[in-house]
Model the fold of this input.
Amino acid sequence: MITRLTCGSGWARLKFTMDFSRFGGNKPAAIFACCLTFGLSGLSFQANAANWLFYSNSSAFNATLDSSFTETFASLPSTDAEVQSPTNFSGNGFAFSAVTTSNKVDSSLYSIGPTASDRWLTLLWADDSIVLTNLDANIRAVGGNFFGTAQNGSTLPATLTLVASFLDATTFTTNVPASGSDTFYGLTFDSQLTSLSIGADPAYATIDNVTMGTVIPEPGTGALLILAALMFFLGAARIKRTSRQK
Done:
């Protein structure tokens, strides 16, 4: 007997043609096989496309982290000064580089801050963007204080343009407001991030307390579907055994 079954839910539904005779007429077994196939396919779909979550609250972002590293830029010059582009940063097994997007001959990053010990990374030219790149392949979360500053180093309300680019050619772009140095934005994702660009208008893009790391694993859609199908199959088999005993 050949019957068409549909399994799946939400964003994906797959249809299979199943021959129940291969399962000895056991419909629960056939349904389990269908859902198992879909579950494994779902796991593949998730791995092949970048999915992300965007955060504007540091506590919510930090709650997703498993292992992480925060760059406070304390190693930057203690006075306002140019910083070579690219500049590399690392800690706790994570690493990244900061570069500018400008083609100007004298383009560079810049060190500013309210005190000699509290430094921010910004730009020499206001029409540039800061790009975080050369990120470790295992990084699945990036966040930090992203904001705008004036030429004299004071904070300046601005509109940020954040552009995340992934290895699979997926991009995520958003324009968000920044009111001061405590403005926070973060991103978690399930595909390798190749770069994160931060621009500001009308201001110099400025960053501080940049956090990168891995995230706490969550059960995938496919894995949950396989588990549900297994529970259904075992329950159906138990009912069948009970009916035979009567």
Remarks:
- The first strand starts at residue 2 and ends at 9.
